[in-house]
Sequence to fold (321 residues):
Amino acid sequence: MAEWLIEEGIGETRALLIEDDQPIAAKLYWPGELSAGRVVSARLTSKPAGQRRGLATLDTGTEVLVDHLPPNISEGALVNLLISRAPIAERRRLKRAQGRYVPEKEAGNGSAVSCRPKGRQVRQFPAGTWEEVWSAASSGSIEFPSGEILVSVTPAMAVIDVDGDGNPRELSRAAIPAIARALQWFDLGGNIGIDFPTIEAKADRKAIDEALAEALAGWPHERTAMNGFGFVQLVARLEGPSLLQRFAASRTGMCARMALRAAEMAAGSGRVMLLSIHPALKAKLKPEWLDELARRTGKELRIETDPGLALEASQAQIVEQ
Fold:
């Protein structure tokens, strides 16, 4: 029976859907972020005449694209919004949050209505599970027996490229389990394109469509049939940044948090936690995060920087002094 497990990490909350000690899906949240499902108060700063859409601004300065506005509300009014999509950082821009107008009688006290998965909080996921998902998201790739899929994020969509050797139909079929895994491991949503090898025969394309439909039966989405060039488009609900978008916008932030996790999970009986990291990560380690790490481990913390380490290759060990 699949179960969501929750790790309250330092600087992030991690969630894994686990079945038979294997990761099925993942989600990641950073504190202080505006999240989907929350009801907030904002000031309406722009509303074109005759439109039910507009732009509202929170006290924090965060802008939210709003729909379902009643016709009698004008610019400058305070409105309650149900956030449907969190802001998403992209290269050179921030994709604004989206929200829906909520009447005062439905807004209650403005408290959060969490869209996060409900699960069992644990100190540590089953060994290797988060590391496997995180490493795959870091590289944007998942291997399968005859090839690999490469997943990239763009402002328009996420694109999954199927690469490998062999007959196009058989290669496409072999890639489908990895595609299904990537969609949930990386928490992908919105527009998603899958670039399969070109398959000439219509019957073969239909067979791949059917196999893909079966693999994605439990994942809510809409899908086009494969076209003559091997392209399939998916559309799924997007509530916030995927793991791939977080890596694209803040790889050092992702790696710094992973370094803290490695230190927190390190085993040993010494008195000092030695954390070796790439120099670029040191500036990302907030003092309050380091204090929390010391509190959780009960160890004196020593940080060493090594430019020879990759951002993703931080090392933690417990030593005597």
User: Anything to note?
Assistant: The chain is about 25% helix and 35% strand.
